[in-house]
Amino acid sequence: MPALSPQIAPYSRSGHPVPSSATLRLCVNDSSLSRLDLLRFLERAQEREVERQRGIRTRPPTPEWLIELGLNRHAAPVYVHVGECWNAGKRSRGISRDQARRAPADGVKACPQCQPDRALGMLD
Ligand SMILES: [Zn+2]
Predict the structure, then answer these.
(1) Tens digits of per-residue pLDDT, 76-123?
(2) How far does the centroid of ligand 1 lie from the alpha carbon of residue 101, in Å?
(3) What is the signed CA dihedral for 99, 103, 106, 107, rounded to 10 degrees?
(4) Euclidean distance between CA atoms 28 and 100, whole angstroms
């Protein structure tokens, strides 16, 4: 079999390196695929990968602490939770560690399920 000299540029238009020439050679042997088709396919695959990674980066992180607000905006917050507490209500929003530490002074109770006071080191 004659060696295939790849005429394909090592970089796609978006500037990301394409898979190794070994991968390309495998695909090019399939005569039903033109090189142009192949290039377009690889480019689409890369764009999807870039989109996926961008999605991971921009996803907001889980807040470390949560405060569960009262039933209406005039009611005081009811509980402080750790970020992943399964018991945190829908009215919870993320707060900083400092805010979580100050919450008991404002009369906000620590959630009995996730015990954020323990996580905050206020019991020792
Ligand atoms: Zn909780």
Answers:
(1) 899 999 999 999 998 999 999 999 999 988 899 999 999 998 888 865
(2) 14
(3) 170
(4) 59
Measure 65 CA to ligand 1 centroid, in angstroms: 9
* CA gap 76, 87 in Å, rounded: 18
How close is the Cα of 11 to the center of ligand 1, in Å?
A: 50
Task: Read off the pLDDT band of 68 (50, 70, 90).
Answer: very high
CB within 5 A of ion ligand 1: which residues? 81, 85, 87, 111, 113-114
Quote the ligand 1 centre to 119 CA distance (angstroms): 11
pTM, two decimal places: 0.51
Confidence (pLDDT) at 51: 87
Ligand 1: centre distance to CA 81 (Å): 4
